[in-house]
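Write out the 3D structure for:
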Amino acid sequence: MIRIITRTRLAAIRQDAAQARDHKREVQASADAAYARHVRAVHDLTTEAKAADDKAAEADARAHELRRALDQANLDLAAARAAGTEQATRIEELSRALDAMAEAVVPLHYGKLHSLHPDRPAAERHAASFGVGPGGWTPVADRPAAESAWLISPLRKWAVADGGDAG
């Protein structure tokens, strides 16, 4: 089939084609702008996601470091508690020993410390093993300790705070 197109019709078709090309350019420009916005948004979101991943990795590393520090602090605390308990036990033992030594005495043989005993009867029994009878003791104040064969003196007179010397 052959169609005859008039000049007017041809001009109208050309005008429609020009309008279609203009519309196509507008749509293409709009699509290009939308695509550019999309690419920019993807790039921005990718950058934000990477930054968030980096911050999360840093937070995980810091949390791991803090967990290690907390574990070490807990170990140190347990050790300090054990040491404190051990020291408290030792203080109790020393306090009991100190209480037991409150009445302690020392026999002196010619002014020299001979032994240590919890009380005077124990010291006298020990000295008796050396042949010192109940009357063989003289009080410390009677004469100088170096001139007496056997003397009994309270341990507190021999304390380091007093210079460690009863004479």
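The two ends are 151 Å apart (CA to CA).
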